Amino acid sequence: MATVTVTQAHTLGMDEAKEKAKALMARMQEKLSKLIGDTQWSEDGTRGVAKGKMFSAEFIVGEAEVSLTVELKGLGGKFLAPKVEADTKRIFARTFT
Fold first, then answer.
1. CA-based nearest residue to 97, from 59, 57, 64
2. Contact assessment for residue 18 and residue 94, using Cβ atoms and an 8 Å cutoff
């Protein structure tokens, strides 16, 4: 198993950051629908969870930063971790700055 955590500072308001995080997770679910089994957001919209066959992910939206922690399960997780981290950093930079 491998764990990847990416944090991105933002200057967006809390509502805009939550909207962008929710939209990002919705796009992720569309693109990876065969891998993602379930997504849920907390009532206040500050925590989102996605679960699938070989991973689990948690979005945390804060006043000044957004973070994503992904646990990649299985032997392939160690090999996928660098790509997941690089892609997440690129997407977060584009989305939240």
1. 64
2. no
pTM: 0.88
Give, for 71, the enclosing helix (H) or strand (E): strand 65-72
- Residues 52-65: b if buried by 16+ CB within 10 A, e if exposed: beebbbebbbeeee
- For the stretch 20-79, pLDDT in tens is 999 999 988 888 777 788 899 999 999 999 998 888 999 999 999 999 999 999 888 888
User: CB under 8 Å to 30, separation ≥6 — which residues?
Assistant: none
Of 67, 47, 62, the residue nearest 13 (C-alpha)? 62
d(C-alpha 54, C-alpha 71), whole Å: 8
Q: What pLDDT score does 31 carry?
A: 82
